[in-house]
Amino acid sequence: MATAEIDAIENELDEKDPVVNEEKSSGDVLTKRKPKKVSRQNSKENVAVTNFVHGPRSWKNSRRSRNGFGRGLPKKGGAGGKGVWGLPGSELLEAYEDMNDPNYDSESMTNGDIELKAVIPDTQDEELRKKMDPIILEYFENGDTHEAELSVGDTVPKNRRDLFVQTAIEIAMDHKSSHKEMTSVLISDLFGHVITEVDIAKAFESLLANLPDLIIDIPDAPTVLGNFVARAIADDCIPPKFIQTAKGKCETAVCLEALDRAHTLLSMKHGLVRLHNVWGIGGALRPVKYLTRQMTLLLQEYMSSFDIEEASRCLRALEVPHFHHELVYEAIVMALEANNATKEEAICKLLKAFDEAVLVTRDQMERGFLRVFDDLNDISMDVPLAYIILDRFVERCHKEGFISENVQRRMPSRGRKRFVSEGDQHFIRNQNVL
Questions:
Q1: For domain 283-420, which CATH number applies: 3.20.20.70, 1.25.40.180, 3.40.50.11540, 3.40.47.10?
Q2: Do 396 and 354 contact (CB within 8 A), yes or no?
Q3: CA angle centred on 415, ends 413 and 418, rounded to 5°
Q4: What's the DSSP call for residue 191?
Q5: Are the C-beta atoms of 218 and 173 separated by less than 8 Å?
Q6: Which residues pair with 195 in a beta bridge?
Q7: CB-based burial of residue 398 (10 Å sphere; 0-12 exposed, 13-18 middle, 19+ buried)?
Q8: What is 74-141 written as a DSSP string?
Q9: What is the separation, in whole angstroms, between the first and last Cα of the chain?
Q10: Cα separation of 221 and 207, whole Å?
Q11: Which residues in the chain land under pLDDT 50?
Q12: pLDDT for 223-277, tens place per residue?
């Protein structure tokens, strides 16, 4: 559209407007800013003037100003406008203080008394115990104090290490003597590394205060705790004066009983040396003669009472699963010496019960039988009918199903000459007469 045509249309609109006409008739001078006109060109004029065609999509996406002003850049470098974050990097140049913040304190923000520290939230005792129990039980399995030290350092806060000592002793109270010995060793090894004298003393004080509750589940808790206190003093983990200090805080009779037990152990001649074996020598550390004697007494007690459960309990208490073949050996020799069908049946029943309870493994069972086979020549000197009795006993055990055919096939047999020379001629005479 031409410029002349646009001017003619605007004049016609002004004449039709009553407000404009009234102002003109009144003779008032109007200061009206004439809008700047933008010349627009159609596609044909663009082609004629510039020889370049601007497509509708390229004009739509163009960043040029539509009114002819500016270059299309953001205001204030991106810092202007409502609801924006401001110029990038401006948060580093000035400190932000919200006056409307309810925690805002103008004085404390400027006087320099603010000190920032890392706050570690307090963990409940029950949550800590759930984390400490696996550490202690795993230590009972592998006996590695270094691994336990790393686990305690990573899991238990420094201000709650006394709870770890307390939990370890409580768990050991309900376990075997070997575990109590391992717990005393653990406390001694961790002392000076991840636990301190204050932690150990505080743990014992808590245990002494909780003795009335512990004695319900563990009747000998005062004696056991007294042993732990005496052993800790012998290992130089706590001073000897701890006993006198703790007695002043005792409020129950069981607490005094535990401390008196510790004082008695320390007062013995060479007490500090003897306390290293306060829990006894357990497991494989015991001499072979001692273990053999205990197994013989176990079998003798069984032959008088025929109590399989008591025999099983005594065998577990020895804690020597690798030495159970000695029990099988002694049991078979006892059956050979008895030469009694009733006792043979009782011993066979005992070995079968041990096999079914997996108290004696098949490997240990076979090893015990093979040891008897190897020593049968020497045994037969004291028991002339050893070959016959053993053959009968092995057949009985094979029928019960706890020894294999391989063991039965390896059963030794003696020659005819030795059989006659051992005073069994009457068996041959009776056969000849028949």
A1: 1.25.40.180
A2: no
A3: 115
A4: B
A5: yes
A6: 191
A7: middle
A8: PGGGGT-STT---STTGGGTS----TT-TT--HHHHHSS-------PPPPPHHHHHHHHHHHHHHHHH
A9: 149
A10: 10
A11: 19-20, 22-30, 38-39, 41-53, 415-422, 427-434
A12: 999 999 999 998 889 998 999 999 888 888 999 999 998 988 888 776 566 677 6
The predicted pLDDT at position 329 comes to: 94
Q: Which residue has the tokens 């406390």?
A: 187
Q: Which token pair is 222?
A: 């005062």
Report CA 106 to chain centroid distance, whole Å: 49
In the structure encoding, which two tokens stand for residue 21, read together?
């006409």
Per the listing, tokens 């500090």 go with 272
Residue ranges covered by each domain of the chain: 125-277, 283-420
Give yes or no on whether 125-277 and 283-420 have one common fold.
yes
The residues, ordered by sequence, that sit 6+ positions from 189 with a Cβ below 8 Å of its Cβ are 145, 149
Q: What is the pTM of this model?
A: 0.48
User: Can you tell me the distance from the alpha carbon of 407 to that of 367, in angstroms, rounded to the nearest whole number?
Assistant: 9
Q: How far apart are CA 141 and CA 139, in angstroms?
A: 5
Distance CA 150, CA 244 (A): 34
Is the Cβ–Cβ distance between 121 and 127 less than 8 Å?
Answer: no
Answer for the pair 259, 238: CB distance below 8 angstroms, yes or no. no
Report the alpha-carbon distance of residue 129 to residue 132 in Å, rounded.
5
Tell me the C-alpha distance between 383 and 333, whole Å. 10
Domain 125-277 fold is 1.25.40
